[in-house]
Model the fold of this input.
Amino acid sequence: MTSADSPAGRPTVQSFDERLQGLIGTMYPDERKRPGYTKLAKEIRESTGGTISGTYLWELATGKKRNVTLDQLTVLAKFFGVPAEYFLSEDVADRVDTQLKAMLALRDARVRSIALRADGLSAQALEALLVMVNEARKLERLSPVDDVVHCADDTPTGKRPGS
Done:
């Protein structure tokens, strides 16, 4: 999920509906298998014990309604496995979205295999792999990955060369 830039050049704040739609898309990446809002509301009720109707869920996800109670916010957060602040704080949403992107990438067995095989390599070897992956992304006409991953010693890694 990315925010569009405002005329002043600052990122605009994501709206509640965009965040909710993003979470639904993350949980159900295949649109053909994605449940409708009525079925999703039933899953939410069964999973969390909280109540939310399919119609109200649709209204929230499409931006038709913006008034969500604290109880409903808590139920949605619990169901999607995010802190309730995800819907309210740009910083929390950015942090969670970064984690969700990593989780989505790791769903692919080949991505997991590459990551596991890279474990234990030297910093120089890892940097060389990052350069190769970034070049492969360019060849595939994929957007660059700008996120910086922090190691256990809290030193940033994963920066593109020249960044």
Residues 25 and 31 are 8 Å apart (CA to CA). The two ends are 22 Å apart (CA to CA).
